[in-house]
């Protein structure tokens, strides 16, 4: 009995593996043979990216009834999950945003998960109070993060 079961399992796995490989080859062939959307002479228009961050939000929290705007956004655009690691043992929202801006681990020195400083109007834009100290602190860590890029 055991020999027959092992033989059947091997045949089933081989058949399943064969089906998966066939499907992957078909998808790869379709992607490689599909005509390009733009010719070499056609410029591809720039697209804007909006990053929405909600600390502690889980995908199971997003639904058509509880979070209709987020539900619609994820259905009509692209969505991803990002787990940010910062320089300290605990990641606070401000540390996470600084890390996203730098592309590597960053922090708000002595932030203690406090709210970030409120930006102040500065000519045509705004400036974050203490920004110079934030950039210097992050440049001096082992990650040498360049925040705000």
Please describe the topology of this protein.
Blueprint: H1 2-33, H2 68-76, H3 93-102, E1 120-122, E2 125-127, H4 131-139
Antiparallel strand pairs: 1-2
Largest sheet: 2 strands, antiparallel
Helical segment count: 4
Strand order of the largest sheet: 1-2
- How many strand elements? 2
Approximate strand percentage? under 5%
Q: What does this protein look like?
A:
Helix content is 40%, strand content 4%. It is mainly alpha-helical and 149 residues long. The protein has a two-stranded antiparallel sheet with strand order 1-2. The longest helix has 32 residues, at 2-33. The model is unreliable at 1-22 (pLDDT under 50).
Task: From the structure above, extract its key features.
149 residues, mainly alpha, two-stranded antiparallel ribbon, globular, disordered N terminus
């Amino acid at each position: 009995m055991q020999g027959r079961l092992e033989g059947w399992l091997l045949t089933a796995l081989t058949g399943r593996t064969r089906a998966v490989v066939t499907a992957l080859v078909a998808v790869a062939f379709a992607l490689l043979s599909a005509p390009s959307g733009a010719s070499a002479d056609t410029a591809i228009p720039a697209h804007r990216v909006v990053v929405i961050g909600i600390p502690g939000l889980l995908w199971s929290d997003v639904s058509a009834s509880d979070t209709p705007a987020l539900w619609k956004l994820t259905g009509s655009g692209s969505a991803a999950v990002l787990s940010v690691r910062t320089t300290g043992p605990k990641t606070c929202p401000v540390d996470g945003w600084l890390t996203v801006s730098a592309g590597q681990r960053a922090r708000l020195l002595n932030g203690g998960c406090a709210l970030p400083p409120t930006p102040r109007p500065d000519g045509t834009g705004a400036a974050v109070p203490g920004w110079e100290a934030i950039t210097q602190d992050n440049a001096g860590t082992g990650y040498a993060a360049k925040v705000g890029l």
